[in-house]
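re: that chain from earlier
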Amino acid sequence: MDLTVIWAFIIAFAVFAYVVMDGFDLGIGILFPTFDVGRERDRAMNSIAPVWDGNETWLVLGGGGLLAAFPLAYAVVLPATYPLIIAMLLGLVFRGVAFEYRWRDPAHRRLWDAAFAGGSLVAAMAQGMTLGALLQGIDVVDRSYAGSWFDWLTPYTLLCGLGVVAGYALLGSTWLIWKLDGEGQAHARKLALRAAIATILLMGAVSLYNIFLNAEYAERWLTEPEIYFAAPVPILTAIIALSMLQAIRKDHDSKPFWLAIALFFFGMAGLGFTMWPYVVPPGITIWDAAAPERSQIFMLIGVAITMPLIIGYTVWTYWVFRGKVTDEGYH
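^ sequence. v structure.
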């Protein structure tokens, strides 16, 4: 067994879990200004009230795991993306505070609604741009970041940011299709269709941009024998995208949400295939950045204990709050 590869998959799983679980409540925040003030906004927020706080556990696990298992990558990526990380954290803070205070301070509810929507949008955009900054490559000299303060700001990172915003809006709208009924569900379907089209187009644009961004990326996707391993990813992604569009139109409740998750899964699989084995392109592999073997073993014992507990209470929470949301709460 290669402990470094195991840790790479653990962190990838934590990031995927965060993107999916916190993605749909960030998506609801992004879409919040499109909801009618009052009942529709209250029901949308009540749909995530029991779960949103626990969803961010995976962000802590992913970030903490990167620091512990790949300290060199952590030490390079953070200085390269400090403005984005700070913006993301501030966005999450504003969103969290607004979530609590909009119920306790109804006199300023418009302010808290704006903070909820703005914080969600900023956090999502920052996460997408951070991914873009990583994929476009980070300038490293002597195992340290050697770029400037604004290397992360490029057309490519902006495109990635917009892609994540659209994707989160897709997750949020399909979640509401599942959890709402009546007019609220009908509105969510309209939003989901628009978000799905935007997400598919932006995923395609980012994928094409990757080919021209880096010669090694192009070689990995377009030359033999790698192309035979890569081809199933875009094919399955296209099938899932078409199935999701059909499910949104045909009045399915939960199916669009699960297909949106599958779309994200294959999107992340494509990114993993593009980057492998680099954790910081173009020059730091997972083995270059890995912690000592004893440290990896020690941490793996902790993860083997805590991760099943996290998965267990997460599944239990979603099971308890599995019904539709009405004006009185979950049923």
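The chain has a mean pLDDT of 88.
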